Amino acid sequence: MNPTRFACSLVTILLLPAALSAQYPARDGTVANRAPYVLAAADYGVDASAVTFSRDIAPILQRSCQTCHRVGGGAPMSLTTYAEARRWANRIKERTAIRDRMGAMPPFFVEPGVGIQEFKNDHPLTDTELATIQAWVDNGAPEGDPADMPAPLEWPSDRGWTLGEPDLIVQGPDITMPAVGPDRWGDIGLVPTGLREDRYVMSVEVREVNDIPADAERTTVGGRYIFHHMTYTSGVLAEGGTALVDSTSQGWPIHEVGRNADIFGEGVGMLLQANSGLSLRASHLHSTGVRETTGRLEFGFRFHPVGYEPEYRRAGGSGGNGIDVDIRPNQGGQEFHSYRVLDSHTKITAFEPHLHAPGVRMCLEAIWGINRFTLNCVGYDHNWVKQYLYEEHAAPLLPKGTILHITGYLDTTAENPNLADTRNWAGGGRRSVANMFIDLGQSVRMSDEQFQAEMAERRARMQDRNAYDIGCPLCWAPEVLVAEDEQSQDGPRE
């Protein structure tokens, strides 16, 4: 049977999504632009005068806030009771209304109405929930009937694991940072995993354990932890156990402060070998600014069943630049661009902007022919680095030859609270006072057969040709059959 290929005419105009009903504020690359999302409750069928904490607000806080905003959590205040939340009502309204800007809560910075909006294991506020919060505060933050309160959530005595108890926990060495001092970058050693058989990993979560009291005062997540991020590799231990066998070494997703766990997705797994070790080769450590702190990282691995073989080959993020960047002092809205051509069919499973202290925003765009698809724009906060895991059915499905375009936005003005000094020029580098803009997200390579099969699944879920999948530019492209005589003349046509 002749192979079927999908093609897209350069003159094809793809359908665009319907216009949004909500008028969202324009975003740019400056910290000063903190225009709030102001949403009227009536537009979402909510009676503003009837909104109460017990019935309407408490469930939102439980789902999207209390993981951190509780006693023992990473946030600076608890929001588990009416008395606690009432005290911070105006702040809750302010921080939720900036939504995708630096300092927004909850720390999920995807700009609504732009690109893909379906992600795993994150609980951003919907428009209705945001309008409800604003109505509650504007109406005096009433408690309502305590009988309407949902049952309080039970939390582990320690920080716990967000994905459940791991199959394997590997502990890094204890590191002590002074109360005040420059950030540190460097290798902190090699840690054996103790694993006795090869296993494919379905998810990995990294957490910091330190001696900061659970009730200690702090203003940012950066005041709660000393590890800003960790770049690490695994591999088989060489004889003597002091190094990794080079041919077996592989990099893992970077741990970053505030970052969610890595879930590799259906058909994907990373190999953790028997007799392996973790090389903690690039730790980025910060003082808390409050107290001398001793802490370590713990790596929690969850495995696929024994005998599992991954369907896809993993690939890295979408590129970027961490070397030859020119960051000017006292200037907002600085833009930096990076382009990469995909050399294979690719499914992007996660988008993860990585910038340094001046970073405020990143956009990811796919270019196919004359068509440009903004997949996502997200805000950035150096104290809350996030990755965005796409739902399987929404993950960008891009053909070989697609150009991935990354735009990073930086702000070095006094409006940016993460800067040590606005007067300094900076180039590329690994410390927070240096800079980069990189997508550290994850993707998988796909064969022709895998690519066509997944496109077929997506078309089957679409109602008709008016349905639109921004992450799949070829889903409704015409099928082109290559005739046998055309193939036989000069070999297969590309």
Q: What's the number of domains?
A: 3
- Globular, elongated, flat, extended or rod-shaped: what is the shape? globular
User: Would you count the extended β strands for me?
Assistant: 26
Report the structural category.
Answer: alpha+beta
The overall pLDDT, averaged over residues, is: 86
Portion of residues in beta strands equals 25-35%
Radius of gyration: 24 Å
CATH level-1 class of the largest domain: Mainly Beta
Can you name the CATH architecture of the largest domain? Sandwich
Per DSSP, the total helix count is 6
Low-confidence stretches: 1-21, 481-494
Q: Could you give the distance between the termini?
A: 17 Å
- What is the CATH topology descriptor of the largest domain? Jelly Rolls
User: How does the major sheet shape up?
Assistant: 6 strands, antiparallel
How helix-rich are the residues, as a percent range? 10-25%
Task: Outline the fold blueprint.
Elements: E1 4-6, H1 53-64, H2 82-87, H3 89-97, H4 127-138, E2 168-171, E3 175-177, E4 184-186, E5 190-192, E6 199-210, E7 227-236, E8 250-251, E9 255-256, E10 262-263, E11 270-272, E12 276-285, E13 293-303, E14 313-315, E15 319-321, E16 334-341, E17 345-351, E18 353-354, E19 359-368, E20 371-379, E21 388-389, E22 397-398, E23 403-410, E24 437-439, E25 442-446, H5 448-461, E26 479-481, H6 484-490
Antiparallel strand pairs: 1-26, 2-13, 3-13, 4-12, 5-12, 6-10, 6-11, 6-13, 7-8, 7-9, 7-12, 14-25, 15-24, 16-23, 17-21, 17-22, 17-25, 18-24, 19-20, 19-23
Helix pairs in contact: 1-4, 3-4
In summary, what is this structure?
This protein has 494 residues and is α+β, with helices and mostly antiparallel strands. The protein has helices at residues 53-64, 82-87, 89-97, 127-138, 448-461, 484-490, and strands at 4-6, 168-171, 175-177, 184-186, 190-192, 199-210, 227-236, 250-251, 255-256, 262-263, 270-272, 276-285, 293-303, 313-315, 319-321, 334-341, 345-351, 353-354, 359-368, 371-379, 388-389, 397-398, 403-410, 437-439, 442-446, 479-481. Strands 2, 3, 6, 10, 11 and 13 form a six-stranded antiparallel sheet that branches. Strands 4, 5, 7, 8, 9 and 12 form a six-stranded antiparallel sheet that branches. Strands 14, 17, 21, 22 and 25 form a five-stranded antiparallel sheet that branches.
